[in-house]
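ARCHIVE CARD
Drawer: 12
Card no.: 0347
Subject: one protein chain, sequence and derived structure
Cross-reference: see card 0346
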Amino acid sequence: MVGALLSAFGLFASIGAVYGISGLSGNSPAAGECALATANAETLAPLAIGDVAAFRVEKKPVIAPDFTFRDGEGNERRVADFKGRTILLNLWAIWCAPCRHEMPALDALQANLGSKAFEVVAVSIDLGSPEKPRQFLSEIGAKSLAFYHDPTGKAFFTLRAAGRAIGMPATLIINAEGCVAGHMLGAANWSSNDAVKLILAVQKAQEK
């Protein structure tokens, strides 16, 4: 299985510059779920500009795909654990050049907006030991991001099956309902004013 995953990741790394997908799918919300995300979709659409112009607002928001990963202490976590907070969920790997390029911006975003209401949840999908992704974060001076790691790489395939990943990196903004407000296929400057305005608009919708 590990060999198959390595082969698959090698393929995705080679096509990582190609981002585009249709027929998006996800977990259909039950009655009343994702109401805030649905109501907020029209507000978000005009904010997908500049540094986040490739961000795709979900016109019909769905419950976020769920999967397990490990935190810095080795404890099992899952996407659903963050319900009640807005999160920017990002999948990255050390072999992914665009991922490495955008990581300082993700760290800066966490330093700027990180709170009980918002977190950048950047999950490394590097297979096996967490040593190398930890070392990379240390080398770039990332001080604000919590360390999260999926040593199996299954997180990528979960997002891919839901239509929210085709290459790396893959990023979702998930609101406090646990619903996908939108997603990005590819890298972005997540510490930019454009990105911050987008995220704050998702958070503001929770206050209504």
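Annotation on reverse: The radius of gyration is 16 Å. Residues 38 and 78 are 23 Å apart (CA to CA).
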